[in-house]
Amino acid sequence: MKTKITLLFLILSLYAFSQKENYALLKEHTKTNILYDQVFELSKITKEKKTEISAMYFRQVYHEIQRADYLERLPKYEELKKVADNAFFEKQIPLSVLLSEVETIKPEAFENNSISKNSNNQFIKNSNELEFDVHEITLMAPLVSKSKKQNVEFILKENQIFNTTNRIISNLSIRINESEMWQTIHINQPFSLHFNSYGKQPIYFKIAFTDGSTKYINSTIDILGNTSENNQSALAQTITATIPFQGFGESQAYLGQGEYEIYLDNVDQVLDKPIFLLDGFDPGDSRSADLIYSLLNYGNSGDNLGDIVRNEGFDIIVLNFPQYSPEEGIIIDGGADFIQRNAMVFVELLNQINAQKVGTEKNVVIGPSMGGLISRYALRYMEMNNLNHDTRLYLSFDSPHLGANVPIGFQHLFNYMANGPLGDVTLQEVVSSVIGSSAAKQMLIDHYLGHLQAGSTTEFNNSIQLPTGAPNFRTVFQNELNTMGFPQDTRNIAISNGSSNGMMTGTPGMFVLNDYTVNASATQRARIDVRFTPPAGVSNQLVSRFRAQQNIIIWITVFSSQANAASPSTSSGLDAAPGGMFNVGDFADGGSGNPTLDDFLANLEIDRFCFIPALSSLAITNPNWYSTIDSSSSTPFVATYVPTINEDHVTLTDGNVAFALNEILNPPLSIQPKNVFQLVVKNPIGNTIEIKSNEQITNASISIYDISGKKVFSRKNVTIENELQLNVQLLSGFYTLKIETEEKSFTQKVIKN
After folding, report:
1. Cα separations (Å) of 152 from 148, 238, 625, 656, 712?
2. Side-chain half-sphere of 561: how many Cα atoms within 13 Å?
3. Most exposed: 38, 255, 602, 615, by fewest CB within 10 Å?
C-alpha cells in the first residue's frame, strides 16, 4: 500500500465531519463546490436511491447538502423548517424542489496518497487524477408529511425551488393517481387536490427540463382519518377553556383549546347518557376524533367498545387536543402540552355537556394513557373548586399515575444523533416534539435533560443515578398530582396493560444493539450500542454509545458519545419491567427521514420496552418496579383489570372490554341513581322559583348551578309540602336545579329571563 500517512498521525489529526476547515483546500479541486464528505451522510443518497421521497427524507438531504456546500448557496435548514412550520398558519402545504450535484472522495484516494493531510490537519490533493465521484440529486416533495383534511391545498413558491446546477426546469406537474392526467404546477399559485382515502397516499411529480430530459419522483402524504364507515359523525366542534394555565418556561398563561365530536347513541339519538373518551399523548395531532374512536376496536372480528355502548343507549363524546395558536406566532401542540392546561379544556367540556344533556344520567369518563391523567386532574379540580362534574364512573386505561418510561439509552442516542454533529432532522423532531414536549417532561420518570453535563446539550454526566426526571417539570407535576389525589365523588376503576405476575419485557441490562454497524457511504459508517438499564444495584453500565467513523486507509472514529447508567439497590431499571409496551419505531415514525435510522430500527434485538409500568397504571407505590400485583397490593382504585402478560400500551382485549362493560352497563348499588321525585317547576323562572309536589319532602338540599357548573345557590333542610316558593337572585341565563334527599333526587334545567 502506497502511503505517507501514518496511523498515529491520522488518529491525532482527524476531526469531526462538521469541521469544514479540514476540507477547505479541496474546494478548488471540485466541480460542484459541494463535497459531501464534510457531513455524515445519514440519507445515504449517494449510495442508495429511495423510491419514495417523504417530507422528512427531503429535509434530511437538504440539510446535508446545505452544510456540505462550499458556496453556501442554500438557506440554512432552520429556514426550511420555518416554512414547514408556517404551514399551520397559512393552511397550505408547501412543496419544494431540490436539484444538486455533489461529490464524494473516492476511497482509493487515501490508499494511493492522492489525498492526504498537511501539517495543519487539512486534506490536500497530491495529484492531477480525478479523485471525486459526482452524484446527481433530483428531489421534490411536500415539506409537511400529513394533513387532517382530504381536500389539501398545496403551493410551490419560487423561493422553495433550490438549484445548485445548470439544469433549467421547463415544467412541473403533479398527480395523485397514476390513471389521472398530469396537472401543471404554477409557481406561487395555490391549488387543491382531493384524496379519496385516508392513510398514506401517493403523490407523483414530473419535472421536465429544457434539455428535453424528464424526472419522475414518487412522494407521499398521510391523510389522517378513519376509513370505518361506522364512525361517521358531525364536524369537530372547537372548545376553549375558561380557566387559563401558565406552564414552566412560558411568559404568560394561555387558555387551552380542544376539539370534540359527539357520536349519539343508536337508540334514540338523544344526548342523555354521555361517555367521554379523551385522547392521550399525541404530539403533532396525528389522531382525528374518528381515529380516537377507533382506538376502542378490539379482537379480530372488528368489534368496537364504543359501538356496543351506543347500541345500549350511551353517547360517546371524543375530546381531541389539537395544535392551535393562542396568539400570533405561537403554536401550542395540544397532544403533548401541559396536562393541567388540557385538563382545563375538559373541565369546560364537562360543564357545557352537562348543561346540554337531557335527563339525570351521570357521566362516564374513559381516559386512555395521558388522557387518564388529564381526566383525573380535571375531575378532582372540579371537586376542589365546587364545580359539579356530574360523573359517576372514572375509568383509567393504562395511565401513568406514577410516571412513564422511555429507555434512557434511546433518549441519549436520539438526542446525540439529533443535536450533535450528525444533524438528524427526523430525530430532531422526535427530541423536540416528542421526548422534549411539556407532557413528556411531566410524565417521564427518567429524562435525558436530568442527565446532561452542565453547559452541554448532548453529553451525559454519567455519575447520576437513575431515575432522574426533567428539571422543573417531573417532580413538580407528580407532587401536585399526589397532593390532589383521585376524584372522590366517582367510582374509580383502572385497566392495566402490564403483567400482574412480574413478567418482564426483556431483561435488565440486555443489549438491544451490540456494536451494530450502519454503513452510510463507502467511507462513512456508524457503530451503535444500546442496552436496557441495568439490574438492581449495578452502577456505571453502558446504556448507549454512538461512534461515527471514516475510512482513511483504516476505519477511524472521528466523534463519539456514550451514556452510562446506575440502578438503585431497590429495583432493576424500568426498561424491562412489567408494563404496557411501546414500539421504539413509533417514536421515529419508521425512520422516514433517513435510511440510517431505518437500518438501526430494523436490527434491534427487541423493539418493545416497558412504557407504562404496571405499578404506575394502578398507582401502586412500591420501590421495586418488578413486584407482582395481587389482592394485597394497595391501589386507590376500587376495581382493576390486570392481565398476566404484558400487552401493547392501550390495547383492548376481550377480557378488559368485559370488565369495562360490566362497570358501564351495570353500575354497583353504591352508585345506582336515586329514586326520582315527581315535581313540577315553573319554567322560565323569575326572582322566585315555584316548585309543586304531590308528596311531602323533608330534609331536602336544594342547589342551583350555572352553565359553567359552578354552584350559585344552596339551601339545606328544606321542607316542600304541596308548593314552595324559593326566592333567588340570578342573572339571566341557563341553570340546573337539583333537589336531593338521602332517598330521592330531582334535576331540571331552568331558564332565568
Report:
1. 9, 21, 47, 39, 47
2. 23
3. 602
- What pLDDT does 540 receive? 87
pLDDT, tens digit, 9 for 90 and up, residues 140-149: 999 999 998 8
Taking residues 635-642, report their average pLDDT.
95
- Give the phi and the psi of residue 223 in degrees, each rounded to 5: -90, 110
Instruction: Give start and end residues of each alpha helix (H) in 295-356.
Output: 305-311, 339-356
Q: Give the count of alpha carbons within 13 A of 734, CB side only.
A: 12
User: Which position has the grid cell 404568560?
Assistant: 252
Could you tell me the three cell numbers for 360?
339525570
Read off the C-alpha cell for 444: 417521564
Crossing angle for the helix pair 370-384 and 474-484, nearest 10 degrees?
50
Cα(163)–Cα(100) distance, rounded to whole angstroms? 6
Whole-prediction pTM: 0.85
Query: CA angle, 269 as apex, 264 and 270 as ends, to 5°?
Result: 90
- Report the DSSP pairing between strands 491-495 and 639-641: parallel
Question: Residues 37-78: pLDDT tens digits?
Answer: 999 888 999 988 888 999 999 999 999 999 999 999 999 999
Cβ 232 vs Cβ 300: under 8 Å = no
Whether the Cβ atoms of residue 256 and residue 319 lie closer than 8 Å to each other:
no
Q: How much is the pLDDT for 4?
A: 34
Q: Where are the alpha helices (DSSP H) in 606-730?
A: 614-617, 654-665
Domains observed in the chain: 7-167 (no CATH), 230-398 (3.40.50), 408-484+495-649 (no CATH), 675-752 (2.60.40.1930)
For 253-267, 293-307, 603-617, 644-658, which range has the lowest pLDDT when averaged over its residues?
Answer: 293-307
